[in-house]
Amino acid sequence: MGDLIGLLISVVVILVGLCAGKATEKKHLASLAQREADLADIRLDSFKQPLTLSAEPHTPTLVCGDAVIASDAFKSWASGLRNLFGGEAKNFGLLYQRSRREATLRMLEEARRQGFDAVCNLRYDSVDIGGNAVASAKQSRPMATCLASGTAYKRG
Amino acid sequence: MIIVNTETVNGYDIAEVKGLVQGNTVRAKHMGRDIAASFKNMVGGELKGYTELLTESRREALSRMLQQAQELGANAVVNVRFTTSAITAGAAEMMAYGTAVVVTPKLQ
Fold first, then answer.
1. Could you report the per-residue pLDDT of A47-94, keeping only the tens digit for each?
2. Per the count of CB atoms within 10 A, which of A75, A88, A90, B3 is most buried?
3. Domain residue spans in chain A?
4. CA gap B84, B58 in Å, rounded
5. Gap between the Cα atoms of A64 and A103, Å rounded
């Protein structure tokens, strides 16, 4: 009986994860698309130096953005299944994309706040939070982390 | 203090290289954040407490790096990079490093 209740709870958690996770993801993707469109006029590239620099004297500066996006119960469960056969875990791929786009947007928003209109030398780092990488399977949280950094300048 | 992740500061000349500077911080997560995170891991979405933790530790690492640069008499740090490593389940290190230099505005 206890096992049955346990199983039932797991199924409910996974179903809640599926519904809530999909809704959160949809909302996030819509918000990302909207903010990306708003910030599209900021030039962003991974060149080591600004391509063109404004004639107006100014000081380039480091800008950063961070994001930590959690997996949901369904994605985590599906990834467990995926481990049986291996192959690409598309769910988690999308999770990482969301965290990168979010971190990039926060970096661009920071650049805009400081009056810049271009960012070069974009770098992405996947960071460890609270020792998640070495935590036991039970303690570790499936999450996608991203730290984006770049040098903001005025392109003129 | 000027801080960039490019190799030079555009519009400025590097007059003197002071050497490598670095700053690190080890941050532990706390239980409140962990409980909130375990709920978020069910429904998905941003782990705001963890994002804050990341932002705080990045700022701390950068400010410690800048302090070192100041002690060396530099006025800029170029080619700044970040790296993190896990220490134990519960704490992680954030490190920022770069090269401290003295820059002067370019003569037009």
1. 999 989 898 889 999 999 999 999 988 888 888 888 888 888 888 889
2. A75
3. 2-153
4. 10
5. 8
**What is the per-residue pLDDT across B3-20, written as a single tens digit (0 to 9) for each?**
999 999 998 999 999 999
Sign, CA torsion A69/A73/A78/A79: positive
Domain of residue B96, residue span: 2-105
Domain count of chain B? 1
Q: Give the residue carrying structure tokens 């790096």.
A: B65
Architecture of domain A2-153: 2-Layer Sandwich (3.30)
Q: What CATH number corresponds to the domain at position B41?
A: 3.30.110.70
Query: Which residues 50-89 in chain B show a CB within 8 A of chain A?
Result: 50-51, 53-55, 58, 62, 80-89
Residues in chain B with CB shorter than 8 Å from the CB of A94 are none
- Name the minimum distance, in Å, from the CA of A107 to any CA of chain B: 12
